[in-house]
Structures are given as C-alpha cells and as structure tokens.
Amino acid sequence: MKRGGNAFDAAIATQLTLAVVYSNAGNIGGGGFLIGRNAKGENIAIDYRETAPSKASRDMYLDKSGKAQTMLSQYGHQASGVPGTIAGLFATYKYAKLPFKVLIQPAIDLAENGYAISEREAMALNATRESLVKNSTAPSAFVKDTKWKAGDTLIQKDLAETLKRIRDKGQKGFYEGKTAELIVEEMKKGYGIITLEDLKNYQAKLRTALAFSYKGNTVIGMPPPSSGGIIVWQLMKMMENRPLSTYGFQSVKSVQLMVEAERRSYADRAEFMGDPDFWKVPVKTLTSDDYIQHRMSDYDSSKATPSTNIQAGTIKESEETTHISIMDKDGNMVSITTTLNNSYGSRTVVAGAGFIMNDEMDDFSVKPGVANMYGAVGGEANAIQPGKRMLSSMTPTIVLDKNNNPYIVAGTPGGTTIPTSVFQTLINILDFGMNASDAVNKPKFHHQWLPDEIMTEKGFSAVVKAQLLTMGYKLSERGAIGRTEVIKVLADGKREVAADSRGDDSVAGF
Ligand code: GLY
C-alpha cells in the first residue's frame, strides 16, 4: 500500500507471501473466500473454494462394508480438492492497482532466498515430519535430516519456480502447463484423481455477499458454500433483542444464551447447508427473523437443552486455516480466510512444484452422520458430487457503522469454531464495548450441536464452568479457539488493530 496499492493489492501480496512463510495454512494448493467492500460502497464476495474432482463420487471414502475411511479424506493424494487460491487471486486482481508481477515478487524472493522460521513453525514442522514423508513421493524443502529450530532458514526453490510461472503466465501458470502437469503426475503416484481438465476448468465465482443489520450496524458476510455467514447472521439475530450487556461478558447468563444459540444454528448447518450450485440452500428462510426467533422458542435459561432434543428447524421449501484483515486509506476493506484444511493440508507436497495440496475433501460429509476432523456431521446437502464445493465454516466478515462507514474487519482460522469465534468477537465489541485487543484475546468458548458439549479455552472462568455444570452442560477444555485478526475504526477515525496472541500473528500499519 505504501507503493500506491490498495487493500486488494495488499490482499493478493499477503496471500502469496503466506503461501511461502506460513506453509501450514497459507497456500496456493488450497482455497478460500474473500469478503470485500470497496471505497465506492460495493460489497464483493469471491468464492475460491476447492471443488471435488470430476472423478469424485458420493461414497468414494467408504470401504466395502460401508465404513468411512477418513484417513483417505484427510491425508495423502486422494484427500485433495481442485485448488482455488490462484483463481481467487486473479478474480481479486480486478480490484487491485499495481502490476501482478510487483505483488508476487516478495513471495518469489522469500521462497528463493529463504526466511528464518519461528519457534512455533519449527515445532509444527518437526511434529508433521513423519506425515509429510509418508504422504509425499519425493524429498521436499519441509523435511530435513535434523530437527528444525527457531531461526533456521527455509528455502523453497521449487515453489519459487512455480510462483515465477504464475508471474509470467498468470492463472494459466498454475492451472495449465508445467504446474498443472506436475500436480497431475503427483496425483497419479498416490491414487489421486485430479486431472488436467479439472485444473483447466476450475473457476472462482463471484457470489452475492450476505448483509444484515445488527443494532443499526450492517454485518457483511460470506454466503454458501460457506456456512459462516448464515451462522453469524442467525447467532447475532438470536442475541439482538436480549440484554447481553446487562448480563455481562462471560457471565453464566450470557454464555448459556450464546451456547444455546450456537447449538441450534449448527444443527441447521448439518442439515441444510452445502454448495448452492448443487443443493438448494434455503438462505432466505434460515436468515428470516421469524425463523430465527422460532428456533429460540424452546430456549430455557435455567438449563441445557440436550442436542438430542434439537433437530434442524422445519423449513418448507445445511483447523487449520489463516485469516487476513485489511483496510486502506480510501476505505477499501478486505477480509479473507483461506485454507489447506488440516495443518499442512493433505501432507502431500507436489514433487517439483514445492507446494502442499489441501485435504479439503474431508469437509464434505463423507457419510451421513460420520463426523469430519472437526467433529461436524452433515448429510445429503454436503454429500460429494463431481465439481461440487465442500461446505466450509470460513467467516470473513466486515461491519459498517450506523452511517454505513467502515467499522470492523474480522475473521479467524479454526475449522468449525470459526463462526462462533467471529460471533463472540463481534458481540465483544458491539455489546460488551471492548477494544479490539480484548475482543480478540479474552478466552473463547464453542458449542456446535454435536458433540453436545461446551468447549472452553484455558482461562475461561472456573466459576462460570461450575455454574454451567449444575445446569446440565458437559464441558471440555481445549487448546486455542481461533486466531482472530481485527481492525476496528474508532469514533475519531483512528484504527485500532489486534492480532491474536494465540499464534505468530502480526499487525502492520502506516
Ligand atoms: N477447512 C475448514 C473450513 O473450510 O471450514
């Protein structure tokens, strides 16, 4: 942006750079979603989610006895959908200002010359070493004979060459020619099914962003094939007419209310949500005030409602990711969440091309009722079909203030915890009046209908946990929930920013 680019230029350059310096989630072998609002006041939703290859089929991960083989949907060559990221970047480029070759050059330089890895990255690479070796067919930059340690230099020559092909040939530098051939050769070595035609046919899609009002502000989010925008819409509307700020931040009353809302919304996710090009997602009904209020009609503020009593509503007509929030001087805002799915995706490095393929096929419902790696279940709406996009939880979000001016850019990684993290972050700001840092860094909790338990982070109030137990809730403590990145515009126009302290996250501004 210092060189005259806008928030969209920054979004492209940052994603390409993360594909080099954050190999566990930054990617060119995965996909994502962008929610933007340009200075002219137009909302933009770009869907570059992966697609099921043309040879994919509904029961491809079931063995002869019908048992789901989730190892195959989570690891190795068969786990990958057709990557969408590079198509997404070129769809975004329409809104950018600088030459693409300028935007990609920092990534090329970092891949070619190397960069010093962080402590967290060294630990992640060491922990994933065995899986990377097992699922790749050739040595890669990510695996070395001795253990990685903080400060070691990671050089990725093959990836630099791939990025140069994209610089020189554009989208075709990835989806056709040498890069595409290397992907398909790699697939053939491990029973993978992505073909040259699948790559050539891949297209990012412009969608219509979801937008709803919350206490006079406008929240803009991602429509299907992400579930995130609908879930946040439902959750916020379930809160809007209740005195959350009187209940208090993470009081037993506010947590219980938010949990019961989450339970109901995730039941809808499992039943109704999927790729809208293949399945009629009843977005209008799911987001209508009447429907949302009806979903809370059996809410009991004195006790837990067992998930066995909650099914999806009746309708007459469904963890490792990374997030970037950007705002520029002209008021362009961009919120992007992008992913390989699992940390280091399928763990399959494309030999000769130097990047890791996603394991996004696991985000489909591989069998009705069988949980994916995030414990989420689904059914027909999210069944595998050739060319279909798997349901996502990614929730890039923008909020406008009461005068339609830029207010908040937010989002996070975290699998199925993404919508609830974004929801809590927005409520922390809009109802509990927190600054960006507290809104991001205070402990979070999560409920997703099934499993029927409240997951809490370390640091969540022991007193509130004890109260919830007496009300009939099951509780479990888990590791970090999300790594949320927030930009918040203050009343005087200054920007308050927060990078989540749960990760190696960072902020920059000028
Ligand atoms: N792979 C995580 C998600 O898209 O929700």
Subunit organisation of the chains: single chain
Q: Helicity range of the residues?
A: 25-40%
Could you give a short account of the major beta sheet? 6 strands, antiparallel
The number of helices is 17
Gap between N and C termini: 9 Å
Q: Biggest sheet, strands in spatial order?
A: 6-7-10-11-15-16
Percentage of residues in DSSP E strands: 15-25%
Plain-language structure description:
The protein has 510 residues and is α+β, with helices and mostly antiparallel strands. It folds into two domains: 7-206 and 323-382, no CATH class; 207-317 and 398-499, Orthogonal Bundle (Serum Albumin, Chain A, Domain 1), CATH 1.10.246. Helices cover 34% and strands 15% of the residues. It is built from 17 helices and 16 strands. It has helices at residues 7-21, 70-74, 85-93, 100-113, 119-135, 157-169, 172-175, 177-189, 196-201, 228-240, 244-247, 252-272, 283-286, 289-295, 417-430, 436-441, 462-470, and strands at 31-37, 43-48, 115-116, 153-154, 205-207, 210-214, 217-221, 320-327, 333-341, 397-400, 406-411, 445-446, 454-457, 475-478, 485-489, 495-499. The strands form four sheets. A six-stranded antiparallel beta sheet has the order 6-7-10-11-15-16. Helix 10 runs antiparallel to helix 12 and helix 10 packs parallel to helix 15. The radius of gyration is 22 Å and the shape is globular. The termini are close together. 53% of the residues are buried. The structure holds glycine (GLY). Glycine (GLY) is lined by residues 321, 339, 341, 360, 363, 392-394, 415.
